[in-house]
Amino acid sequence: MGKKQRKPEDGPEPEGEENEEKKTEGESEEEEEEVYQVEKVVDKRIHKGRVEYLLKWKGYGDDESTWEPQDNLECPDLIEAYEKKIREKEALKRKSAQNVAAGDVAAKKRRKEEAAATEKRKDSSGPSKDGKQTKQDEKKYRGFDRGLDPERIIGATESNNELLFLMKWKNNNEADLVRAKEANHRCPQIVIQFYEERLTWHSEDDEEDKR
Question: Among 36, 40, 89, 193, which residue's beta carbon has the most beta carbons within 10 A?
Answer without folding.
Answer: 36
